[in-house]
Amino acid sequence: LNKADVARQLLTGCATSPAKTRGEAFAPSNIALCKYWGKRDDDLNLPMTSSVSISLGDLGTRTALSMAEGADTVTLNGEVLARDSTFALGVSRFLDLVRPHRAAGFRVETVNSIPTAAGLASSASGFAALALALDDLFGWRLDPKRLSILARLGSGSAARSVLKGFVEWRAGDSPDGMDSFAEALPERWPDFRIGLLTVSSRPKAVGSREAMRRTRETSALYHVWPAIVERDLALIKEAVSARDFDRLGRTAESNALNMHATSLGAWPPVLFWLPESVALMHRIWALREDGPAVYFTMDAGPNIKLLFLAAETAVVKSLFPEVHIIAPFG
Ligand code: PMV
Description:
By secondary structure, the chain is of the alpha+beta class.
């Protein structure tokens, strides 16, 4: 079973020609509080474990789509991309899954509202926006579950970006992945804040796909990861429903550090941190000694994402003047 088979199954009975001339959609970026780390199927982006994220409000990707004969054209933030660029190839490969016939081309215009140097991955919101824009263009009206599965075929974390707020992506266990999709948690937490601290916006040496593969195949520490996730997932969901910020922050920070520890145990080792990342961790831990509940999480890169409540905004701004603050619930 490959991506094309799953896409066909997913879109059974769906229109193969556009319902209108232009489809359009927005999807928010998301940051995992309990990470997705390791695939059980590399082609279908099926995860070893479930994960929980928070979406980033109006930071994300807006994509407009139309059809034209010939090769695809992809525009990113107003610039037409070379056909052989990684981004354009990724988009075209995803569009192959739904292309009505060989000569059918798409015009894709994508605008990212993620601050350009923030070092935030745009693949999650990018593939989610693309899936939603296709749904709009073809008039499929897929349910959120099927939209999440379609987005996942582009990038695992995109499964969570078709939804807003706190989102849980259930790993599922079927080989075709039809039970591996995201669902929104009912809770809203208007005081919840995320602070982006950019350490480096250079492309990373090892991408998340390769890092996950290497960790799963060679790190002895990876064997404990599923149990860590099971514990953390439950704690985070409890913390969200009880509005227990300390528990949420502690669990999310520890979960990220455990994820990074599994990669450090891989061979060749994978370490995403730069000296500046470590310096920031020490500053955050020192700050917490003084009281403010400010925690952090990190993904497959050197940047730090602060987690705090609105009441700590002034402290965070004074200590980290360069921080970009996001209010996920507006
Ligand atoms: O699906 P990808 O390739 O964007 O992988 C995401 C991996 C992490 O960001 C490190 C964790 C996560 O759950 O988002």
